[in-house]
């Protein structure tokens, strides 16, 4: 039994003061976890250079990364937003099917292969982005393309 | 005195085993059958664990691709809040002489605030919507 009473403070911690005007405005991604997971590999396919830049910047400026890497961070966010907007503009139906499947299947990618296949095909056809998993063993079919799987 | 002697031609054979037909297959068959079943099972286990490894790799890379997005947003928000706090401090303390503004730490690192000052109307033990009602 907890001996302390819970204190709720989230309703007073709202701080809506914007960043100073000399810092460019960025639209935040605003997607919840399932759409983000669904779009993750396409974000990776298009935004890998920006992501790597940002993570390298953070790594090279310990303790100052939050401020020094805001420029790179804005690029990362803009790129991710562009991917999600392209997905919504071109493959909305497939995208929705896939992330709603993920939502119901506990965010397990292997439970939504059918929907994922449709999404991957549509995205490759219309946006030219392909899902690849780096570091997968060569000479084997990538896990998301296998038809014969133990976990189904 | 005559002794008991075996009958002429010796005793007949003694039946010490039950006269039943042998049951099942040869023993070696069972050994090999067990081995075969076990090998098949281990093959499935190993195959499955390889697949599990690939699924884990997929999940890990999905998160690796998402980490910068989430981190960038979080950093921006934290910087915004800290700077807003500093500006609030400037406004509140502008009349105080010799007030030193800015970070209280002797470093140029970006120090995430450990404590956040909050207004005093937090009612312990009551969730916000109840607090709202109490205030109304």
Specify the biggest β-sheet of chain B: none
Shape of chain B: rod-shaped
Overall mean confidence score, pLDDT of chain A: 91
Order of helices and strands of chain B: HH
State the helicity of chain A in percent bands.
40-55%
- Please outline the major beta sheet of chain A: none
Number of strands of chain B: 0
Write down the secondary-structure element order of chain A: HHHHH
Strand content of chain B is: under 5%
Shape of chain A: globular
Multimeric state: heterodimer
Short characterization:
The complex is a heterodimer of chains A (152) and B (136). Chain A is mostly helical.
Could you characterize what this model shows?
The complex is a heterodimer of chains A (152) and B (136). Chain A has a domain of 94 residues. Helix content of chain A is 53%, strand content 0%. In chain A, helix 1 packs across helix 4 and helix 4 runs antiparallel to helix 5. Chain B is mainly alpha-helical and 136 residues long. Chain B has two helices and no strands. Chain B starts with 26 loop residues before the first helix and ends with a helix. The interface between A and B is large, with 56 and 50 residues.
Topology:
The complex is a heterodimer of chains A (152) and B (136).
Chain A: H1 33-60, H2 65-68, H3 70-90, H4 92-104, H5 113-126
Helix pairs in contact in A: 1-3, 1-4, 4-5
Chain B: H1 27-92, H2 128-135
Domain CHCH (chain A): 91-124
Subcellular location (chain A): Mitochondrion inner membrane
Organism (chain A): Orbilia ellipsospora
Main features:
heterodimer, A: 152 residues, mainly alpha, 5 helices, 0% strand, B: 136 residues, 54% helix, NADH dehydrogenase [ubiquinone] 1 alpha subcomplex subunit 13 (chain B), transmembrane (chain B), transmembrane helix (chain B), GRIM-19 (chain B), respiratory chain (chain B)
């Amino acid at each position: 039994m907890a001996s302390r009473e819970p204190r709720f403070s989230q309703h007073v911690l709202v701080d809506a003061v914007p960043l100073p005007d000399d810092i460019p405005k960025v639209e935040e991604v605003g997607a919840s976890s399932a759409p983000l997971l669904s779009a993750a590999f396409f974000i990776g396919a298009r935004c890998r250079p920006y992501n790597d830049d940002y993570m390298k910047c953070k790594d090279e400026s310990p303790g100052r990364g939050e401020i020094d890497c805001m420029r790179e961070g804005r690029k990362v966010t803009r790129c991710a937003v562009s991917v999600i907007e392209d997905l919504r503009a071109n493959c909305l139906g497939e995208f929705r099917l896939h992330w709603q499947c993920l939502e119901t299947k506990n965010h397990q990618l292997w439970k939504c292969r059918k929907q994922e296949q449709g999404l991957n095909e549509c995205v490759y056809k219309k946006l030219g982005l392909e899902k690849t998993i780096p570091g997968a063993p060569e000479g084997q079919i990538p896990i998301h393309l296998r038809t014969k799987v133990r976990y189904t | 005195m005559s002794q008991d002697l075996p009958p002429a031609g010796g005793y007949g054979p003694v039946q010490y085993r039950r006269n039943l037909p042998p049951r099942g297959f040869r023993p070696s068959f069972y050994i090999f059958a067990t081995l075969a079943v076990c090998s098949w099972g281990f093959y499935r286990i190993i195959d499955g664990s390889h697949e599990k490894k690939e699924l884990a790799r997929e999940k890990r890379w999905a998160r690796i691709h998402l980490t910068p997005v989430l981190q960038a947003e979080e950093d921006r928000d934290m910087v915004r809040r800290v700077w807003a706090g500093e500006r609030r401090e400037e406004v509140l303390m502008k009349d105080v002489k010799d007030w030193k503004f800015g970070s209280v730490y002797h470093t140029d690192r970006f120090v995430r605030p450990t404590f956040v000052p909050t207004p005093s109307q937090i009612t312990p033990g009551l969730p916000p919507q109840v607090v709202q009602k109490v205030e109304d």
